[in-house]
Amino acid sequence: MQAVGRAARPPRRWIAPAVAAALVLAGVLALGPGHGRAPRTAGAAGTAADGLPHTGVEVSPGRCGRGWDTPVPGLQVFDLHNTSDRPAEVILEDPGSHAVYGEVEDVGPGTTRSLTVRLGRGTYAFKCLPEDADAATGPTVRIDRGRSGPAAAPVTTHDLIPPALDYQKWVAGGLREAVRLALRLREAIDRGDLAAARTAWLPAHLQYERLGAAYDAFGDADGRINGTDAGLPGGVRDPSFTGFHRIEYGLWHGESARGLRAPAAGLVTALTALRDDWAQARMDPAQLGLRAHEILENTVQFELTGRTDYGSGSNLATARANLDGTRAVLTRLRPLLAGRYSGLVALERKTHRAETLLDGFRHGGRWTPLDRLSRTEREKTDAVLGDLVERLASVATLCDPRRTA
Predict the structure, then answer these.
(1) Which of 35, 134, 192, 267 is the 20 to 30 A CA-CA neighbour of 95?
(2) Are the CB atoms for 127 and 93 separated by under 8 Å?
């Protein structure tokens, strides 16, 4: 579902971190397609223009992993050629522990995708998972020397159920608080005290933003509660422009209290309905790792561009609230990540750095507007949060439940 008033977002896709220094997010798993390399048929091997050894490997239910006849240690590329009639996911794993060294999704029929990995002493096998068909595991290959890149034990949906349930309870409590703060905002508007309403607006909005509604976690309700006027024929005057940003526009553009009473009442109604519906909802555990990445990706897309500023100048405050939401997810995923993600300590350090940076833009109850940042401050903010988004992509990848059969 696409939330009303939000710009269309890109479809879900995993960008796999590679061990190669030329690719960002090194040190997690060597996943994802290469670009600009000529397809290599299964069984063919040699060194390509990139200077790395390439091996052609077949992807099919009956001949999964065929072609890897001469194993070598070190950084290398497997050109995965799908000879079947359906798309397939391909995993390179330790056949004993099932720890994953690399993964490529959506290898289409008749196409070749590349997987870059560093392999060393150990045993390996390709697993092919065709769409709507049983998994197939290829021959086991042994390498007797060298040091491999990192591997991670696969996360299952069962692993994610406890943290997802705990996170869902946390969101439920946050929604109750959001309703309480929205009621305070409505009461200030109802009595005509617009100064008090401007003071009450930000805490209510930030409480909602902490709850991680990015990428339609709350479905159509998010559009009613926190949508923008993007794509609406009437812009800020359009009747479909509702919620926090509609009230924000009115409060900071001289609208009367009378004109804001209906939007304020609508906000309370929408938040109350979401609170009640959430109590009966069942969050998909498989989305938890994705949420950790996309909350902050949404922040970079909407808040650091100023696209959601309707007069309050509070984008940096919203970004800080989104960091709180990201940390709420990471805290619950930490037991799963601790043994799988070698970059976890660095991620936590970078998260704290981002929090400290944004806290520096708060002065009492006021926040520095985006357009008041110096060029140096703006570049640093973009760099710190952009780096964090890239690191969180690793969390999404590692916590994506993998099919095993």
Answers:
(1) 35
(2) yes
Quote the CA–CA distance of 208 and 181 in Å, as a whole number: 10
Give Cβ neighbours of residue 352 (< 8 Å, ≥ 6 apart).
none
Statement: residue 327 has pLDDT above 80: yes
- List Cα–Cα distances, 54 to 28, 43, 49, 150, 191, in angstroms: 21, 10, 10, 20, 72
Residues in the chain: 405
What is the average pLDDT score of the chain?
88
CB atoms within 10 A of CB 254: 9
Average pLDDT over residues 268-297: 93
H or E segment to which residue 30 belongs: none
Helices and strands, number each (H, E), in the chain: 9, 11
Q: Is the pLDDT of residue 19 over 50?
A: no
Interatomic CA distance for residues 378 and 47, integer angstroms:
44
DSSP assignments along 298-342, one per residue:
HIIIIITTTTT-SSS--HHHHHHHHHHHHHHHHHHHHHHHTTT-T
The contacts of residue 224 (CB under 8 Å, 6+ apart) are 4, 242, 243, 266, 270
Which residues, 6 or more positions from 363, have their beta carbon under 8 angstroms from its beta carbon? none
Local confidence band at 365 (pLDDT 50, 70, 90 cut-offs)? confident
- Lowest mean pLDDT of 126-130, 241-245, 338-342, name the range: 338-342
What is the pLDDT confidence band of residue 151, given thresholds at 50, 70 and 90? Answer: confident
DSSP letter for 62, please.
Answer: S
Q: What is the pLDDT of residue 215?
A: 60
> pTM above 0.70?
yes
Please choose, from the candidates 397, 340, 402, the residue with its C-alpha nearest in 3D space to the C-alpha of residue 135.
Answer: 402
Beta bridge partners of residue 55, listed in sequence order: 45, 78
Question: What's the rounded Cα separation, in Å, for the pair 271 and 200?
Answer: 16
Residues 6 or more apart from 245 whose CB is under 8 A from it? 5, 226, 227, 228, 229, 308, 310
Query: Long-range contact list for 273-282, CB < 8 A, 24+ apart?
Result: 273/221, 274/175, 274/218, 274/221, 274/225, 275/172, 275/175, 275/176, 275/178, 275/179, 277/221, 278/168, 278/171, 278/172, 278/175, 278/218, 279/172, 281/168
Distance CA 157, CA 60 (A): 26
Q: pLDDT at residue 222 above 90?
A: yes
| CA–CA–CA angle 19, 22, 24 (5° rounding) | 65
